[in-house]
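Lay summary. Proteins are chains of building blocks that fold into shapes, and those shapes determine what they do. In this project we predict the shape from the chain. Here is one chain we studied, written as its sequence of building blocks.
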Amino acid sequence: MNRILSRIPALLLALACLAAFLPPALARDAAVAPALSARQQALMATVTGSAAHPRILQVRLDELHPTQPAIGYDQVYYKLGRYAAEEKHIADIAKPKKFADLCEANGQGDVLPGTANVAGATLTTPPPGYRCKAAVGSRPDDMKTVVIGPRGTVYLTDGHHTFSTLWDADGGRNHQLKVWVKVSDNFSALGEAAFWTRMRAENKVWLKNGRNQAITPQQLPSAIGLASLGDDPYRSLVYFTREIGYQPPDQATEFLEFYWADWLRRKPALDLARVDLLDPAAYASTILLAAQAMVALQPAEPVSGGKRAADLGALREIDHAAFDELTEDKGKLGYAIDYRKSLLRQ
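And here is the predicted shape, written in a compact code that computers can read:
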């Protein structure tokens, strides 16, 4: 024992000398970075597939890290409002929307009728008979995408609204819900700075908050959900104009809706601070005005961030049938406003 103790100072001196030859950043990282878990190591080893045959991965919602700081709350409110309305007479709902949304997100198409309409059922504790139409990943075009970052961190690049809705559904009891996603890239071999440089270069991160102010990657929220992500009301406005004033083209650019939002917020006639978003008529009029501005653009006309109207899917004319469907009694807008009002009563 005395012989071992006598060697400790020499061992400490040797370690100190070794650290002296490490680059400062590497020495600092080695000193503070905790050991990688088995899960992190497995994620870092994930092999990406191709567009035709994507690699799919099962993750928990609380493993997902946002690549944008804000969402359109009213888009999430529409879903949560519809879920709540259906729950009141769930036995009469053949295909509950929340289970249909989960099936779709997992690339399984729709929920099978009559398999999920059970009172009190949650996404994490579904009815025993719950089934989707297809196997996981059968419809990859419907699935959301992630990038594997340094230390196996899973960054969500598409699906912030869908997964935030699932996160906040059922009274917020779904944070550990397991979902399936597509892995578009594995950049886990990069250092932190190089990773964010790559993400910017490939347009896989949106670094503007809900007030259109620039942020740094370090200011991105650490989790999805309404409590973590900020609200961008213009992003909600764009959601409601979909299929009325624009339709995302095939191979659409990442963050397409934010380019439209950036353009709309610069129009004085669409100052949302002056619109009563609890008034269905006022909100509907604003949506129509935004859609009219979209369809008035020429295909080659610039919109935002170097994107043209054609790049962002501007339609040539208003789809009035889609507008009527949006604003009807059981339309998306009504559910969103009713849910927003319910929050004021809490």
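What the prediction tells us: Residues 124 and 228 are 21 Å apart (CA to CA).
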